[in-house]
Amino acid sequence: MRLNSxxxxxxxxxxxxxxxxxxxxxxxxxxxxxxxxxxxAAFPVAVAAGTYDLYAFVVEFPPGSGTPxxxxxGPVVVTVISGELVLQRSVGERILKxxxxxxxxxxxxxxxxxRSGEAARIAASELIPKGAAETTVVR
Length: 139
Hints:
Order of helices and strands: HEEEEEEEEE
CATH class of the largest domain: Mainly Beta
Radius of gyration: 18 Å
Shape: globular
Helix content: 10-25%
Largest sheet: 4 strands, antiparallel
CATH architecture of the largest domain: Sandwich
Number of strands: 9
Distance between the termini: 34 Å
CATH topology of the largest domain: Jelly Rolls
């Protein structure tokens, strides 16, 4: 756990260091706004040697919508950008709020549901082995 916290902190520091080293942009407005890491999460992921596809996307959930129960062919990291979603897993439900992240491991049956009256949005990244199904609906 400590290693993951250190990795997350290292990534955040790298972003800050890179943006600080870029210098000042001439805008005529004084110093430009500072880039800040808003949220950071680190998860342990073990993958076998091979070729993978990395998918990254943003998904919007209108009020009352959700995904069917499903699994992924590789690990998926989901971060809530706005709104509130319910993550349903075999062990129960968890409410996800903006800035919160979860990992969905291959074979973990789950669903995301927007039970609120407002739209919710997530950013997700999937690491899927070549030839594996990205998502499979579970009946």
